[in-house]
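User: Run a structure prediction on this.
Assistant: Running it now.
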Amino acid sequence: MVFTTTMNYFNMNQRMGLCSRLLKRSSNLFVFILLITWSSCEEEQAFIKPSIGKLTESVYASVTIQPEDYYTVYATRSGILKNIKIEEGDIVKAGQVLADIDAEDPRLTVEGAALNVELSKENYLGTTNRLTTITNEIEQIEEQLLLDSVNYFRQKNLWDKNIGSKASLESRQLQYQLTQKRLEGLKKKYKQTEVELANQYQRSQNQLQQARTNLNDFLIRSKMSGLVYQVFKESGELILPQEPLAQIGKENNFIIEMRIDEVDIAKVSEGQKILVTLDAYNNEVFEASITKIYPQKETRTQTFLIEGAFEKMPPKLYAGLSGEANIIFAERDQVVSIPLEYLMDNAKVKTPDGEISVKTGLRTISRIEIVSGIDTSTAIVKP
């Protein structure tokens, strides 16, 4: 091996000498060409040796920073936006009204339903309700029944003593029975009326609640507390249920959204370490880890969406910041490796003695592990 290297060095000196003599004899036109040839002569014979060090295999992913629990606000009703109560950068609370839609008809419906509730309540529970009237009638009939009962049994006692006529007895008995039936009828009427009025009252309350719910649909509220990142509409514009009004997310909590190629998705798993660089922070690397892997591939980009969380948040983050990430899935120390450009056909290297087959292992963007075939004493030439 030493001999070969020496001879190689001798041959290289011979070529350099030849190039020098040609330069001296050539015109200025050929000087530039021969300088390139000389450089090529040197580059052809340049060699390196495998080195030992730490090797990390990773998967590349594009990065977008998004707020945690980021969501788009939509209206549930169509109409004209009367008043938008938020601006970009505002802090909102869950349930806060963000905008209201013109709702004159639903408002009138609520007013009408409220009047019906008052009327049905008065009929059911008021001081002069229908049940009070029936109750008064029942009290009157009960007094009449008491009187008819006294008259009937008095006449019956007389008849039992052969005093009076049978016609008088039968008349008193009939009057007593008719009053009994009237009382039973009034009591049934009371129960039926009570059920009817109670149902009407409950129905009117339900209608009022439904009317208020419909009216509430014309108020667009926030589902969460957070920061308003974007507003898409202005007051006076028409809005439809499928059109977004705004985007809201957590104020200081951000996640890392990454798009990874489908050929690499099998290599990643939750908890893996991520090294993130952001365009807004030049030359800074932030550590993070995978928190979620979405199982559905996006057909348009042929990528999978995964999420990550920073181990330590950058000083300032904004929605939409972009960058790159390397997801580390293999890492080893004391690895023999060479630059990727020195590998041929994924299984060979070129040496001054010729080509040698090698067995490879971990691969990064720029280097590849050599498991067997050559060692750190082997000189290899760039093919």
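The longest helix spans residues 166-216.
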